[in-house]
Amino acid sequence: MIRLPIIALLLCLQTTLLAQNTTSTDEQMIRNFYDLSLLDGQSYNWLDYLSNEIGGRLSGSKQAQMAVDYTKVELDKLGLDKVWLQPVMVPHWIRGRQEVAWFNDSSGVRKNVNVCALGGSIGANTGEVGVIEVQGIDDLARYGRKQIEGKIVFYNRPMQANLINTFQAYGGCVDQRHVGAIEAQKFGAVGVVVRSMNLRQDDYPHTGAMSYGELAPEDRIPAVAISTNDADALSTAIKSKTDVVFSIDIACETLPDVQSYNVIGEITGTEFPDKYFVVGGHLDSWDTGDGAHDDGAGCMQSMEVLRLLKNANYKPKHSIRVVLFMNEENGLRGGTEYAKVAQDKGENHVFALESDAGGFTPLGFSFDCDDANFEQVLSWKPLFEPYLTQSFTRGGSGADIGPLKKESGIVLSGLRPDSQRYFDYHHSPNDTFDAINKRELELGAAAMTSLVYLFDKYGIK
Amino acid sequence: MIRLPIIALLLCLQTTLLAQNTTSTDEQMIRNFYDLSLLDGQSYNWLDYLSNEIGGRLSGSKQAQMAVDYTKVELDKLGLDKVWLQPVMVPHWIRGRQEVAWFNDSSGVRKNVNVCALGGSIGANTGEVGVIEVQGIDDLARYGRKQIEGKIVFYNRPMQANLINTFQAYGGCVDQRHVGAIEAQKFGAVGVVVRSMNLRQDDYPHTGAMSYGELAPEDRIPAVAISTNDADALSTAIKSKTDVVFSIDIACETLPDVQSYNVIGEITGTEFPDKYFVVGGHLDSWDTGDGAHDDGAGCMQSMEVLRLLKNANYKPKHSIRVVLFMNEENGLRGGTEYAKVAQDKGENHVFALESDAGGFTPLGFSFDCDDANFEQVLSWKPLFEPYLTQSFTRGGSGADIGPLKKESGIVLSGLRPDSQRYFDYHHSPNDTFDAINKRELELGAAAMTSLVYLFDKYGIK
Question: Which DSSP state fits A285?
């Protein structure tokens, strides 16, 4: 009766000490990642080069290729076990010369407006035609062909400012941009103008992908985004007079597909080299800004994850790959190809983390995984609390890693930064390096590294 | 044996329903505050005027008086029960003409540097004198009078970038600014240059209050802040050559005290009119920027709290006052006077909330209160979670409301926004309206209103 309790006590003590040691090791390791990122980080310098020396990196462009070359060179410098380029054919849409658009304002005077072609739009010059304002796709049927035919449809439903998560507000509007043209064409529209997905009032038009679906080339109509200030001016003009005309003159073209690449670096696992972790973002961006937030930030943070693991002298059990995906913005070819190659090779991917929500203060992560793994994540909350990045939610992850999803056995995760400012810059000429805060970027990289470390150490359930 | 359980069950049910109703009322009320703030807020427009039409509002300046007049007029428009000015004499320090400072760089060529006088500094022209770099007050004794006498002391200890809470990093450096001059003078220094309290590398000098303590006027030495870029350049020069000279030429003056005011508005309580809540910020600011973040944001958010309560048609039980305190930056005369008058009149203040940490995304509140009230606050977490503002910590509140502190019976609280960007702007020429994000400001105002509402409804424990 005496020995058992003593043994039990000793076992208990050992377990407690072990638990304390483990926790303390984890605390120290995570502290180390943050110190390395905040005191001696590379993500900000890399992003400076990518944004200011290369700039906007639309798929198929010279800049996209420069970004591939640059990140390959930088990954080579890190002393990873492997660095390679994964070929992928990408669409090659070009904007052409500066877009021109105007309407006649309430006094009848021509007012030039800030527009940009939506990604994928045909080039066209509509000439001056009538314009009809709608609040969304559903309005089209209400007005009918009689009122729409021969006109430009102006989609003006704004993002809902009282939603706290701005991605939700974006989700509530983006159908106008994505399928606005194909739907308006069914009613005989000759072009569409879409209010920029922007919660601010300013003069920047925000581009983004649109689709013609199966529409025959000769039936396609041009599509542009208009700045929020000019959307309001146009709406005011339409309300105050009946004969408003609008003109769109854009010169975009879709050229043949181009050879491009996903950029990949790997630290090969010590215990489970055949189980793969992916951490990534997308290397392509829209062309009007320099793509610092979308998604230069996520790419540089992902490269930084591998650099921090190495500099902390942590040898992962699993093989950890950074993947800089090509063509998220207008095709998702890179993400699709990466998953296809992985499947063809029978590579067992067990974890993927994407950062593609801007380089803002990280608040936590979202997880697309089973209950057991989410429970495990919740148990790590105390480790993230000192860094104010403990908001763990279930939900989506990232577009590029989406194709890796399978029935079970993989955890998909997305870094979730503060979303309040994201749509001020998203797909806009002001998505530039000066909108990046160094600390916010570095905190994200450290948080991502910490999550990768914990999943690597404790495994996928 | 049957009746009791049934009664218990019914009671239980009633309590549950009541709790649900209460929660649901609270949820609706808070949702309403956020909708009013984000869809139809005034804080951003008010701050636009205060920042761009009035500008920097140093105590005793014409702009400070304009800010008093403007906010009084705006509060008058809100239909509060009372609006008044509370007289307070304030210091009147002026910067004078643009500061000039230089050193001879490693090639011996004169390099002009970006400096600004610290608030309270005397005006002086040191001429070219030697300069000695130190990492803090403690270094002075190490070097001793022999190496310091006749020289300028250059305090160059940077903010610690790996601290997550940037206010903690600020706290670790600000002694150099506050008492650097008085301490250096003891060793015969003729002036001090202090590295700006800024986590970024840039060209802005950051001012702030300094003190001469009891030092006789004739013994006082000039004190300036230097930008982080120029601090690094100066340090490099000092390390690379031995005969670096530095020159400070500044023209500040302390003039006689000036009549100024706290601006106060009140909604008188329906049940406890003699129990007072205060919500406020400080109306004065430094003069080099326009004081948008520090603390125009906090003032406009505080005014917005009363506007939102009124527009939501909520009639508070307690008397709720907005107080725009004068002279936080270089004297705290407004906060001190408000507390003194309250005490003289026997006004029972039970709650005070200050916003003075910038108009950034709110993450939560800190509380200086007893256990019972903090427990109550923790029970409200679920109400704040949808708004991502549920980080409730114990700790400080705000400088202006500090003098209201008493042994018991008052809850002091501070809005705690994301701190990552605050010291990019704090006391600097770039603390301007363009650094304000409308949504972030409005979220703070809504969060503050929600907290005031809950404490008003459920009372102080």
Answer: -
